[in-house]
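> Could you send the Opacity family porin protein prediction when you get a chance?

Sure thing. Input:
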Amino acid sequence: MKKTLLAIISALAIVSTAQANIYVEGNAGMSKIKSGDVSKSRFTPSVAVGYDTGDFRYAIDYTHYGKSNAGDSHVKTQGIGASAIYDIEVGSPVKPYVGVRVSANNIDAKEEKSSHNLHTIRQTDSYKLGYGAMAGVQYKVAKDVSLNGGIEYNRLGRANEHNINQYGAKAGIRYDF
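Output:
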């Protein structure tokens, strides 16, 4: 899946050089993944290809949320999402934004429990529909380059009777073609 996604993003980046208003963005952040007993902070890289219409941006992204462990439980999550982002014009080089996101998330969750002579393992590896919200600021440092920073919340889905939520902060760079 990772190789396919990288091929798609590479193809879009090449095609986008002939299109106006197309951009690519890379972000690095820290996220807390919470699911039942699991609550760990992890490094979360993401890449996106988007289209900027002026006040609104639309993007397709891939995010790797990592693996979180707690005792006998673990959750590994990655997702492909689509975002709609509104850039708020404030007459300053720093431009705030707010947005919403829907995603298809691959969730691999495993939970082991032991009591007396009974040992049970519940494992789920499936795709779940997720949704989220984001807010942040971007700063244009050159004609085609912007730096950004923001916060986000995503409900990634449900596995083994637990909701899986992500809270994070990220920083990144955007290049406009």
